[in-house]
Amino acid sequence: MPTCLVTGGAGFLGSHLCDELLRRGHRVICVDNLETGSLKNIEHIRVPEFAFLQLDIVEPFFVEEQVDFVYHLASPASPIDYLRLPLHTLKVGSYGTHHALGLAKKHRARFLTASTSEVYGDPKVHPQSEDYWGHVNPIGPRGVYDEAKRYAEALTMAYHNQQGVDTSMIRIFNTYGPRMRPFDGRAIPTFMRQALQDQPITVFGDGSQTRSFCYVDDLIRGMIALAESGRHEPCNIGNPDEFTLLELANAVIDVTGSKSEIIFELLPTDDPQQRRPDISRAKEWLDWTPQVSLREGLQKTLDGAGRDGLIGRAR
Ligand code: NAD
């Protein structure tokens, strides 16, 4: 029974990863400082194969038990969080990643770092394949997140090349599902919260900017396949079906049966115009393609989180 250590395991994606690893018969050590995550995401897990350690990985950390996989997900992830926590975001991407890699090296464990489509910035190439180097403003407000992730990738590759650590890197595109936080500022939780209360749905700009949205179960399946693949180069995992924000808002209105109207607000600084993964590499390496369509995923999110889970309360 392999043991997996998941940093950021009490967050949205981390908690789904813990669930799936346990379901597959792994032992799981979940490490989290609860900065943006919550014990609520893992309180349903009551098996002896699961352990929770509350600690901040910006500080060095060790575990006694042999670890076979390190899944490194800890980082503020939504714009609201990383704009509130700019230095912490840079520290967890640098010191935190360094400590997680050190632990993987010590245990001779496989390592996966959770990178992001944000490494492509506001892309000049569409769709984005892994060999595109990106178009990021390092000193813009989003730079703290984008550059922390780019640095984390560089560090991960250096540990592989110089220290022989068996590393992998997933570039995650927008993912959604139950346990998203209603007030995390991202489009799907915001639109669902507004729609369920028949409040106006706030679309930035004219709503013509596009995104691709991946349902969480598809993402986690791709993440585990990549960690187990022995591939060291970055790999995009995301759903290539592209929607404008306006199309997304209308899909949310349909699925929730809402009476909301759509209103338009100022576009945030450096907001990318287009985002769509080229998933040729994931198909070739992992035989991975997403299975859940947007409407199906929105319905699953509604069913899984329930109305109360999606409305929530501001933090
Ligand atoms: P999240 O905020 O729900 O989860 C992040 C978790 O990391 C939280 O539980 C938080 O408490 C924990 N954490 C933060 N700093 C920490 C520290 N110093 N020590 C220990 N724990 C710490 O975010 P998420 O959406 O689940 O994202 C998980 C990972 O996936 C992040 O690395 C994020 O950058 C990446 N990612 C997510 C998406 C997405 O669409 N959700 C897209 C691209 C990349």
Automatic annotation (TrEMBL):
InterPro entries in the cross-refs: Epimerase_deHydtase (IPR001509), NAD(P)-bd_dom_sf (IPR036291), UXS-like (IPR044516)
Pfam families with a match to the protein in the record: Epimerase
Domain of life: Bacteria
Keywords carried by this UniProt record: Decarboxylase, Lyase, NAD
Signal peptide positions on this chain: none
Domain NAD-dependent epimerase/dehydratase: residue ranges: 5-238
Cofactor: NAD(+)
KW Glycoprotein (keyword) present: no
PANTHER family for the chain: UDP-GLUCURONIC ACID DECARBOXYLASE 1, UDP-GLUCURONIC ACID DECARBOXYLASE-RELATED
Protein name from the UniProt record: SDR family oxidoreductase
Organism, scientific name: Paraconexibacter antarcticus
